[in-house]
Amino acid sequence: MRRVRVRRWVVVVAAVVVALPLAGLGVLEVVNARGFQFFGGLTRAVATDERVVALTFDDGPVPGGAEELLAVLAEKDVKATFYLVGRDLEAHPELGRAIASAGHEIGNHSYSHQRMVFVTPGFVADEVERTDRLIRETGYAGAITFRPPHGKKLLALPHYLSEHGRTTVMWDVEPEAEADDDAEALARHTAEHVAPGSIVLLHGMYESRAATREALGSLIDRVHARGYRFAAVSDLLRLGPARG
């Protein structure tokens, strides 16, 4: 069976390599695309009329950042989705347990946070499955979606996720790309750009992300003021099909 899967993978790779130039798609465009991949389901936002958005945090967990984010979310009574890195979760399992016990969703952000582009199927399987096990050890029992490190993906990762019925989750609102170190601008940009079904990408764990942590309370208040509520990614995905 394993040999059959390997042969199938070789055929798929060969077909895609031939198809790329014929389709006029550059490799970099595919690697970076938020709304396209060769295999399986990908969501950067959801098509819905409900004024609901998902707040997501990439990386970690690490001491300091994790506790501060959890405190603000608890104060505002908001549930978020944390895309955690396996090596950080392994180093700080107590923080993973704190995230799970607070009722937040936990997603898989790989074990090593390496770009999942020119990698083997075996490497992908190890990165995903190793982190899945660590996530389950936190006590989290819900669906585990996957977000590619740095948003990069090409062949092996989407193929693995498709074969295992897993969803690739990207985003359509990225305030840190516009105002990386300005808390007021981060909050304002988020509130001005969310739409029904949006997925907001933030990084608040590491020391360098102080502005994001500072912005979080105001960001939540501003989005609420526009009539939106927050939901975990898996709940958002149930509201409608993927929006490109």
TrEMBL record:
It comes from the Bacteria. Residues 51-231 form the NodB homology domain. SUPFAM superfamilies: Glycoside hydrolase/deacetylase. Pfam families: Polysacc_deac_1 (PF01522). Signal peptide: none annotated. This is Peptidoglycan/xylan/chitin deacetylase (PgdA/CDA1 family). It comes from Saccharothrix longispora.
